[in-house]
């Protein structure tokens, strides 16, 4: 992404907004699948994590580097009636921890708001300059 | 076709371009969920820069804003490539540019008025 000098902060703030909305998408996937015992590969849903990278060295926007899977262990709960239970009656549950997801959700929301605030402030700054042309 | 090196004509073309771009952005946002839709944008600044590099009067039709499909943004699974945040950013930039052109035009008219009132 080429950053135009005058509108650089706008492009950067927009890249931040896009990144945080992607983050929100990942969190909602994790929360929705908190009890998914079968994700299609013979194992429960694995928690996802969005990885971000900066576009350039120095002043730059942010973009999505990739979506990584969390390799930590699955939770095991005792539920012999479940069709996915093993011989001992244990079912593997996704490695999603709801309180963690809720905390990440708050961080993503606040970061989104911060980027929107930058966008708004910068708009006001340019408008101050334009006032000089009146 | 008419040739011009008048600032008012340039500003007029700029304001027309920002008007058209506002329509393009509205169109993109309206088609946020339309399958297969690719976002559209307006080509103007590139045309103006190219024309201003060559000295002398400028052919007005050469800086007429054009609608085109950039086809550069990543396409989602339904073939659509519109992103709401990007469009909002474009809209902010567009309205700031529009404001700048209007203020410059206003300045130019004030200058003319000053010359007439003496």
Report on the structure:
The complex is a heterodimer of chains A (134) and B (118). Chain A is of the alpha+beta class and 134 residues long. Helix content of chain A is 44%, strand content 17%. Chain A has one domain (8-131). Chain A contains two helices and four strands, in the order αββββα. In chain A, 19% of the residues are buried. The mean pLDDT of chain A is 90. With 118 residues, chain B is mainly α. Chain B has one domain (3-117). Chain B is built from three helices and four strands, in the order E-H-E-H-E-E-H. In chain B, strands 1-3 form a two-stranded antiparallel ribbon. A two-stranded antiparallel sheet of chain B has the order 2-4. In chain B, helix 1 packs antiparallel against helix 3 (84-117). At the A-B interface, helix 1 and helix 2 of A face helix 3 of B.
